[in-house]
Amino acid sequence: MSAISYAKRHDFGIKQRFVRRYHSLANRALLTRGNLLLPEFSQLKTDIERVDYFMEILRSANEGKSLDDIFSKNYVRLLVKSDNGKSDHVSRVYLLHGMEAKEKDDYYMALYGLTKAIFHAATKERLALSLLERSDLLFLLGLYKEAIHDVKEALRVSISDCEVIAESKPVGLILSVNRTKYCYTCLKRCHNLLPCQSCAQVGFCSTKCAKRAKEDKRKGDFYPHRHKYDCNGFLPVIFNCLNAKNPKSIGRLNHTAYTCIANTKPRRLLQFICSKGKYKNINLGNIYMLFRPMAQTEGICHKLTSINFALLLYICLVFLLKKRRGHPAFFGIEHVRKGSPPLWNSSDYASVAWLNPYSNKWNSVEGTYGTMMLDFTVASVLLTYCLHLCGYPMDWTYSKSTRFSDKPPANWIAACLLYHLQSINVNAFSFCDIIRCDQVSKFEDLASPIYPAFSLINHSCDPSAILIASTKGVGLLVALKELKAGSEVNIAYYDIYTHRSTEERKEGLKNMFFFECKCVACENGWDDDNSEEKLKCPRCNLGLCFAEEVCLNCKSNLPHEEAEQMFRDFNVFVEYASRAKWTKEEKRRLSSLISKVHSLVSPPSRMATTLRMVLFDMILETLQLWTYESWIANFYVCNYFEESRELREHRSLILE
């Protein structure tokens, strides 16, 4: 097999033998129901009913055997390890691939190949050889410290010595893509990653991060067991549990759903499902999110400078609702969301088990087995079995007639996973790093995290705020315009009105988020064709052509002198913005100009859009996670000069 073929298997779970055999088993079982399958399945109301229905079909088609009885644990583990485990042969293939890319001056692909060679090395000799090859490339790129470290590691391989390199505080994210460039524990960008000792899928920036990846929860660490239940070759299986032909995008969501359960202790999961322990008799009538109300009139850029370049838009969402308990997988989201979650904290499972899964919509979305709901159901049982094989405690012998035990029943866990597969596909956000050099930049996707509090914010195609991921994975909600007391905060789930037509936006939102957009931009047909700027009447806010002297509605005089000064200030600032250093004074200047445009010009406005993009660039530069690399242009140069379209597509699949 070529390096590209191995990369597709190891990075995205394509052609996983265990996944294929599981889906073959599921397909044969589902065929036994014939034409009754979809009508029967569509009648089921809750996730636990759907899981039980599928598992019963599976048992009936296999002489009453459960999934745990059908497959041999040792056989599956050996099969997964055979596909995804460490191998000197695979390491050699990646090594040659990396060396060939290096000869072409394709540094990104070379780093990818050499790091994968290190990940897959099964023997100390192969690991040492791969480390030495990567050190040569790192030296060429000017990463001297990393190159020296690789040389030291190669020399120490023979004596099995270990070194604590650096401390990196872990963040609450699961790295799903670009795993050859970032530490799996702390998400630090690192080009001399140390390979996991038990699998060939991830690496760590230090021995400390490697050790912490599988440790139990410690104080201040909200996301324990980061690599405890997806190691030993199971990560590609988890990534492509739906057996998709191109799982790159949805694979991150599958991984996030899996992690929701993997990072929750079995006892805590049982307590939440059964409303026991700390989830018993808790009624938070008022839930105050982790925010405070924002000052009424202060400019957003001024706020940015007052808290060390960390602009936080504070919201206060208050729920005055009756108490309802239970997991939506068992009682349905309509019942559960009649009340607030028992605990609202991003470190607690309760906050991610309260999001809307839109279960009534997934039954109408086409899938491999007929509907996406059925696809998710089949995948949820596979993910449950992966958890089981990786050591997560569960009871496969549980039936409806048995008594409650200390271990969650397998079908309960599958039902919870089915719920998360649905909800995360609608509620997950994107987390990325920006690689920069001069005027060139590249967005590196890392994961699809959940920010439960931010999932409650409504959409608008003309948003008043934006969500970005800063260092340490903290989600920051940043205002795009001045927000007065009582005004609604909204974000864009999809493209804003200047990027797509109204029809395209509505169709995209309906397909991906299951709602008909009725924001002000869609209701008034705003799009990029609205090119004419209109002066806003200071009394009635009617938008008028600049040629008008007075308002056609209320006969008020229009502020032409102020508008002309605004145009002059706008042209000067936009010309200067690309060179701005974003000092405190420049941020205040931008804030003042944004406020002036919003007060004098009626939306939609190209001026307001331009200033919003300037503000967005400033936010990315001062708050967003980003990395400077002097050789980023090499990525685009090598893309442009790639020999064939097919090779360009393969390169894009792996590196973007």
How does the SSE layout of this entry go?
Elements: H1 3-12, H2 17-31, H3 37-42, H4 47-60, H5 67-70, H6 73-84, H7 88-103, H8 107-120, H9 124-140, H10 144-156, E1 194-195, E2 203-204, H11 207-212, H12 235-239, H13 248-262, H14 266-274, H15 300-306, H16 328-331, H17 333-336, H18 349-352, H19 359-362, E3 366-367, E4 370-371, H20 372-389, H21 410-427, E5 431-437, E6 440-447, E7 458-459, E8 465-469, E9 475-479, E10 490-491, H22 502-513, H23 520-523, E11 534-536, E12 543-544, H24 560-577, H25 584-600, E13 601-602, H26 606-622, E14 626-628, H27 633-640, H28 645-655
Parallel strand pairs: 5-14, 7-10
Antiparallel strand pairs: 1-2, 3-4, 5-6, 8-9, 11-12, 11-13
Helix pairs in contact: 2-4, 4-20, 4-21, 7-8, 7-9, 8-9, 9-10, 13-21, 15-25, 20-21, 24-25, 25-26
Describe the protein's architecture and organization:
- With 656 residues, the chain is mainly alpha-helical.
- The chain has a domain at 457-624: Beta-clip-like.
- It contains 28 helices and 14 strands.
- The strands form six sheets. It has a three-stranded mixed sheet.
- The radius of gyration is 27 Å and the shape is globular.
What key attributes describe this structure?
three-stranded mixed β-sheet, 14 strands, cytoplasm, about 5% strand, TPR-like_helical_dom_sf, Beta-clip-like, three-stranded antiparallel β-sheet, transmembrane, mainly alpha, S-adenosyl-L-methionine, about 650 residues
Note the main sheet: 3 strands, mixed
The rough form would be described as globular
Going across the biggest sheet, name each strand in turn.
6-5-14
Instruction: Tell me the fraction of residues in β-strands, as a range.
Output: 5-15%
Number of strands: 14
Question: Could you estimate the helical fraction of the residues in percent?
Answer: 40-55%
Give the number of helices: 28
Unreliable stretches: 158-172, 282-324
| Gross CATH architecture of the domain at 457-624 | Beta Complex
Mean pLDDT: 81
CATH class type of the domain at 457-624: Mainly Beta
CATH third-tier fold name of the domain at 457-624: Beta-clip-like
Q: Give me the secondary-structure category.
A: mainly alpha
From the alpha-carbon coordinates, what is the Rg to the nearest angstrom? Answer: 27 Å
Euclidean distance between termini CA atoms: 22 Å
